[in-house]
Amino acid sequence: MHQYHWRGIDSQGAFHKGRIRLESSEKLQTHLLEKEIALLSFRKKSAKRIFLQKTQTSPPDLFYHLSILLEGGIPLVQALQLTQNYTGSSRQQNEVESTIRAIERGSSFADAMASRMPFFSSLMIQIIRSGERANKLTESCKTLSIYLTRKQETIRNLKQAALLPAITLMFSIAIIISLFLFVIPQFQPMLIERSNTLPPSTRLIFSISQTLRSEQSKFIIIFGLIVILGTTRFSRNKIMFPTRLILRLPLVGRLVVLVNLTQFAQTLSLLLKSGVPLIESLHLAGDCCTNQHLRGLVKKINVHVEAGSSLHLACLSVDTHYFPASLLAAIKVGEQTGKLESMLDKGAQLLETQLQSHLQTIISMAQPILLIITGLIISFLLLSIYLPLFNFS
Length: 393
Known about the structure:
Blueprint lengths: L1 E9 L4 E8 L2 H10 L2 E9 L6 E3 L4 H13 L4 H9 L5 H15 L4 H6 L7 H12 L3 H58 L5 H14 L1 H20 L17 H22 L4 H9 L5 H15 L4 H7 L7 H13 L2 H53 L1
Antiparallel strand pairs: 1-2, 1-3, 3-4
Helix pairs in contact: 2-3, 2-7, 3-4, 6-7, 7-8, 7-10, 7-15, 10-11, 10-15, 11-12, 12-13, 13-14, 14-15
């Protein structure tokens, strides 16, 4: 049980706040919705009152709050102004403020969002535009919130899955570099003095140790770290895997395929539900693929659909090695029954389940593999040092 200090707003625009003890933030939202109050922010205090957390509004929350306020009859500009106070950062507040000013000048919500790209993505803009055309802006905001929440959850699961192997890898690298920098140099003078014919493995590790301790290597390492950090920051939202090579790697290749196809199916389903035409939906959904090869396959599918082919036949006409049978079957059934968007969503759920299972497999295998590799490297280093000592004795 946790104690929550919450703040919310009702359909009349009146603010409310209070505290309550519940099991989770989801139950807090449900409890307040039953009272027709939209949750804006909360602080969670554990039963022991040691840790205190405060949430910040993320894009899913932004559209969720908008849908609640619009459903309560609050005008769009006023709803944005109320939501603006609870956005996560000053930059987000400035972006929302600029959007409000554009709407007040006569722009539609979608056009105002388009003027604030890349804060609002093309996908968000297209869904809001379709909602405005169909006079279903509230439903579009709610649907977009659900989609962004699922996407955020997938990314969070990927990061959590990579955390433990990454820590193990960094710890292993630190141990190995420490051996080269501090342990091996202690043995080098003694071994060189006693023997002019050291084993090749011993000469190799001495050479690596000297290289790592040189001034040039320090500059190379610092420069490499700067390049890696700079590249990561520059391409944080545009990670592109350049070739098909990564798709052929054991475990990793299937992970990349599942992540890309899950995002593709979810996005395509969302766009079709919002009333976006299939061809335009395929174009936007293809942009969600971070792998260039898979993105190219989606473009080929789009070409076949533009030529008059059904989506199922278009998928079969390209490289079907990467498209699982469950997704193809869902597309086929959806086209036959006229419920393509619903079947795509079900296919995405199946892929998401497979993704979670595959992540667990990778986690369970990566940790022991890294430990074994580290142990073999350390054993090689120790043997390369101690074998000449045994020969001397």
